[in-house]
């Protein structure tokens, strides 16, 4: 084997591995909080754990198709600043950004339950929020000046999936069944044409 062949193989392999199919969508799922930032918590259950588990299930469900690639802003219990998250988002220029969070009300046990969605001041963000609301059940949709929404150049929404201090929401969102159902609903939204 000559040296020329030894050089061609790695170059070909690098080119092949860096090939990205034309038209493949990138979707960013932002699992809020992480590391020392617990987010909302209740009796040892934290927002950062719940949203990471759901984000991971969304990414796992992606492995069965080739239309889009799910990128997580974090895939472990690490903290990334909001500026770093939005820098990654803007570098990737995804088709959509879904930031996952869990709500908490001031009460010890909340009578409030269910989800709510915050949007950018764009039609694309509001359209995505409407699809999510339709899939999960009608809810409050509000334009809000939050960093992840304000600084992301792609259509973005922040979804509060439920209240950590509402027993029904907490039990559902911490269960394997609930997390899989939530992840599946997001996959169905992403797959809508």
Molecular structure report:
- With 193 residues, the chain is α/β, with parallel strands linked by helices.
- Helix content is 44%, strand content 21%.
- The chain has 7 helices and 8 strands.
- The chain has helices at 3-18, 47-61, 82-92, 123-136, 147-151, 167-174, 176-191, and strands at 25-31, 41-42, 45-46, 68-72, 96-103, 116-119, 140-143, 156-163.
- The strands form 2 sheets. Strands 4-1-5-8-6-7 form a 6-stranded mixed β-sheet, sandwiched between helices.
- Strand 2 (41-42) and strand 3 form a beta hairpin.
- The longest helix has 16 residues, at 3-18.
- It starts with a helix and ends with a helix.
- Mean pLDDT is 90; it is low at 1-20.
How many strand elements? 8
Strand arrangement across the biggest beta sheet: 4-1-5-8-6-7
Beta-strand percentage range: 15-25%
**Largest sheet entry:** 6 strands, mixed
| Intertermini distance | 50 Å
What is the global morphology? globular
């Amino acid at each position: 084997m000559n040296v020329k062949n030894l050089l061609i193989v790695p170059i070909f392999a690098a080119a092949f591995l860096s090939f990205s199919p034309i038209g493949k969508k990138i979707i960013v799922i932002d699992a809020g909080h992480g590391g020392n930032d617990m987010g909302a918590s209740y009796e040892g259950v934290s927002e950062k754990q719940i949203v990471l588990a759901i984000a991971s299930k969304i990414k796992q469900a992606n492995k069965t198709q080739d239309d889009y690639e799910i990128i997580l802003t974090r895939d472990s219990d690490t903290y990334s600043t909001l500026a770093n998250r939005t820098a990654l988002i803007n570098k990737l220029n995804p088709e959509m950004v879904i930031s996952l969070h869990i709500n908490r009300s001031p009460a010890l046990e909340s009578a409030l339950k269910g989800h709510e969605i915050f949007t950018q001041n764009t039609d694309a963000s509001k359209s995505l929020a409407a699809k999510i609301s339709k899939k999960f059940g009608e809810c409050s949709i509000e334009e809000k000046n939050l960093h992840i929404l304000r600084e992301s150049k792609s259509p973005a929404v922040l979804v509060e999936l439920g209240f950590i201090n509402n027993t029904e929401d907490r039990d559902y969102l911490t269960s394997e069944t609930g997390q899989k159902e939530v992840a599946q609903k997001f996959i169905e939204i992403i797959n809508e044409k």
